[in-house]
Amino acid sequence: MTAYPLTVATFLLAAAIYIWAALRVGKARGTHKVQAPAVTGHPEFERIFRAQQNTAEQLIIFVPLLFLAAAYWGDAAGAIYGVIWCVGRILYITTYAADAQKRTAGFMITALSSILVLLGLAITLVVRAF
Amino acid sequence: MTAYPLTVATFLLAAAIYIWAALRVGKARGTHKVQAPAVTGHPEFERIFRAQQNTAEQLIIFVPLLFLAAAYWGDAAGAIYGVIWCVGRILYITTYAADAQKRTAGFMITALSSILVLLGLAITLVVRAF
Amino acid sequence: MTAYPLTVATFLLAAAIYIWAALRVGKARGTHKVQAPAVTGHPEFERIFRAQQNTAEQLIIFVPLLFLAAAYWGDAAGAIYGVIWCVGRILYITTYAADAQKRTAGFMITALSSILVLLGLAITLVVRAF
């Protein structure tokens, strides 16, 4: 993985965004008095919580796809995917907290970029096999 | 990772199954009128949602175990584990949506295959150390 | 990854702790009669469930950070991070089940160790670039 420093840098950025999303959940617990283990009780808390949960859900496939993109297409390709994903997630986390209806743009940027990378990797595997 | 094309292919299949499980949640939100950020409100929605959540939970350890299986035992071993996991998950996601009691078979296939790979890797590490 | 056997061993331990946390959820479903797909209904069940969920959430970034720590700083560094994380998580899972207020120490050990590794890797990347 040390052969792909730009890709590793975007992974670290994505991990930092994810930690930031989790810190927002902790802060919202205090603001809206939602004590653990509860995860419901106030609409804004629930939006901030779901934004963090969805970031976790997408991170699960983003990380392996990111390093596979770097391994098959080079460090720059991995980094481009990583940066797009990070921008989309920052947008998603901030818009979702304000209004659940506005989360679509940020969601689409990260979801579609991951789906495109997945399809691209599948095509690369098939081409390489022949 | 490019040295294990069959294993990578099964990872891509597992990621596609996971995206499919997430698309089912989105569709069930519409069908049963469960608006984000809510994750409860209709039994079928809740089953489809929990099936996707549990797939995320298992994917977290499946992905590193998959690539470790390939690294220690070869590409074919990784691919066999990957295919078994994918079959179990498709079964789990479809049966859980229909009836929570029927999810056991699919769950056991993926959970037990991951536990066996984990134990096998632990034994491999111990044997290699001596 | 086979070049870092101690790091791999701590990953296997972390995965085993995670499976143990999930088995506790399954057992608590029976004890407190919380039938799937429900994830609420009894305070102790909810604490055990949230402890497993939070372990999943932290594992998502722990695993790539662990292997990056090994790749950049060597096998011993990865293993030290891995052992600290595992100790913190066992503490977290057991204390959270007893009392949500007591989960802080275990949480902090794993969260802070991951944040420190993330920051350390970012510094390493910057130093290596110049």
Concise synopsis of the structure shown:
The structure is a homotrimer of 130-residue chains. Helices cover 83% and strands 0% of the residues of chain A. Chain A has 130 residues and is mostly helical.
Terminus-to-terminus distance of chain A: 27 Å
* H/E series of chain A: HHHH
Structural class of the helix and strand makeup of chain A? mainly alpha
Mean pLDDT of chain A: 96
Count of helical regions of chain A: 4
Helix content of chain A: over 70%
Largest beta-sheet details of chain A? none
Percentage beta strand of chain A: under 5%
Gross morphology of chain A: elongated
Largest interface pair: A-B, 27 and 22 residues
Which quaternary structure do these chains form?
A: homotrimer
**How large is the radius of gyration of chain A?**
17 Å
